[in-house]
Amino acid sequence: MNSMKHPRLLAPAAVVLIGTVMAVAVGIGHTWTDALVSEIVILFIAVGYFFITGSKGDIGAIYRRRTDERQRNVSMKASRLAMIVMFALCFVIALIEVASNSNYWQEDAIGSVGGVSFFVGLVIYGVRDEDTAGTSRGIMSSDTVDDASEVDEVRPPM
What we know:
Blueprint: H1 10-29, H2 32-53, H3 58-64, H4 69-99, H5 105-125
Helix pairs in contact: 1-2, 3-4, 4-5
């Protein structure tokens, strides 16, 4: 069972859960006043996610997990952009840390985990033997179907 009763609440609930954990970490590491401010900001972000998921555009459909193929493509492109920006930022921070003779293991860990997960993703989602080049399937396949005639009713624009 992959569906939720209220898919619109998934993103705000995740924001509140993760944000509360972060606020507790802020309270432990700094002050509880800072943690309270962090939690208030997290609640505002969660309310924003609630309104975004109610929208009828691409963003609402992606967060509600009711996407069509085009919206999945938009989501994949946005994820790719986020990954590229994250890796670039980690690289720049690591260069700054090396130049200032500081400890840069955090950026190295983030970049290494990202790189390894990329290769694992290639293995998981890569071409399989049944998906080799030259074979096609689905509605765009060129295989002939019995009892179907090909009629070209598309006229060129005049």
